[in-house]
Amino acid sequence: MHKLTITDASFLYMESPSNPMNIGSVQLLDVPSRIGFFNDLKQYLAQRIHAIPFMRKRLKSTPFTLDQPVWVDDPNFDIDNHVMRVQLSAPGTWQQLEALVARLHETVLPRARPLWAFYYIEGLATGQVAWFSKYHHACIDGMAGQAIIDVLFSRDPATDPPLAPLPEAEPEPGAFDLMFDAARSLIDQSLKFPTRLDDQRKAFGRLFNRFLKGQAGLGALYGEAPRTPFNCAISPYRTWSAASLPLPEMKAVAKARGTTLNDVVMASCAAGMRRYLLRNAALPLAPLRCGVPVSLRAPGDTSMRNQVTMLVASLATDVADPLERLQAIKASMNVGKGFVADTGALQPDDLHVPGLSTMMSTASLWAERFRVADYMAPMVNVVISNVRGPAKPMYLHGAKMCSHFPVSIPAHSVALNLTVQTYVDRVDLGVTACLEAVPDVADLRDDILDGWLELKALVLPKVEPSIDARAA
Questions:
Q1: N or C: which end of the chain has fewer CB within 10 A?
Q2: Phi/psi of residue 250, nearest 5 degrees
Q3: Coil, strand, or helix at residue 70?
Q4: Which residues fall within 8 angstroms of residue 398, CB to CB, at 6 or more apart?
Q5: What average pLDDT does range 178-197 have in this prediction?
Q6: 308 contacts 399 by C-beta, under 8 angstroms
Q7: Cα–Cα distance measured from residue 282 to residue 119, given in angstroms and rounded to the nearest whole number
């Protein structure tokens, strides 16, 4: 029985009409010039998606919400419900593609089917095809998304990945089976609890010591995050924009300043947000806070489930100098990493509480109805995520993958999400936001690019750009 973990299921419980929990990516493909490629590709996918467990499974709830839902085989699975062909109208600009991806991304995936969709988008003026992959966050996190690419894509344009053997059909559990398993999970959880007490006691001690140190121990968690236009109740409508940055140059800046690549990414995003908010007379005096997803995966773990936590760091948007801001971000990230390491034992591996799904779903719906996010103090102002992608070119049934732009989740109280994914020599940026909170998302994207160029000019003044940052 493949039961969702509490982390997986929480994305189901938090979902609401204005808050769909979809993540995905857009790859530009150089498609081979042969007739019927789309139909061939659909057949190719139909033969391989069984190697990714959730892609042929639907959700089944535990009776009386006694525990998390489980994945069961979908007897009515039809590839035509999940792989769709879309045509851009002329002239097929990048801006048209961005608007279309936003519209496709904002629709809720039906829970009666497997929770994913692929869109084959034609009509781009460049002659390329845009491949938009969309998944419910309950299925995967960012690193699991990269594992899917390793299954469906190949490193050789002339060779497809080998076919995996078809798994045996699994009998669907009945109501009694699910209730019995819920009871067993609850008992197992109670029996395991004492074994974690010593680790949790030590973690509480480390946490207490950090509280005693105040800001030095808590870092960006000390005090309250300032309010910005990004911190509000969101509408059901999305906006999305994307661009590429040069990976070798970003690594060179990180090496020259003694920081990580992620610090440089965050400093570029911080500079862009500072520019954007200053132009709109909305920059707070206090520094913006960022939520940074941190993977909990062991090396080599490619399982299709969420294994992630979140650290909080300062973006130092109150600092005008880009180099000082970069160092302040580095220092804040180091404190945040230490906090996550010290308190890891307090994060449960899983949680089984009867009725939890009803309580969380009801709370999410009422919070949305009363727009609670418009009044509550935000924990963070923005989420910035950095996912490592393939280091070598990949091919989808012979079509060369030319980009790896992420599409992510705005949420109530955090209407803006900035995610980057590396691919070969690129750092591909996706800016996903609530349309009402950030209607001019392309301007914010350009501000981030300008922030990067400003930082690069200070650190690598003689290096010519290897990638046109404003080109997709």
A1: N
A2: -65, -40
A3: strand
A4: 32, 157, 158, 160
A5: 88
A6: no
A7: 37
- How many Cβ atoms from other residues are within 10 Å of residue 156's Cβ? 11
Asked if residues 152 and 161 have their Cβ atoms less than 8 Å apart, the reply is yes
What the block records as the tokens of 454 is: 């400003």
Average pLDDT, the chain: 92
Backbone angles phi, psi at 460, to 5 degrees: -125, 65
pLDDT, position 405 = 98
For the segment(s) 2-178, the CATH number from 3.30.559.10, 3.30.70.270, 3.40.50.300, 3.30.420.40 is: 3.30.559.10
**pLDDT (tens digit per residue) in 211-246:** 888 888 888 888 889 999 999 999 999 999 999 999
CATH class of the structural domain 214-346+354-393+404-459 = alpha beta
Q: Where are the domains of the chain?
A: 2-178, 214-346+354-393+404-459
Residue type, 283: L
Beta pairing partners, 400: 30, 395
Identify the pLDDT of residue 462. 76
Spatial contact of 98 and 104, defined as CB atoms under 8 Å apart: no
Residue 466 burial (CB count, 10 A):
13
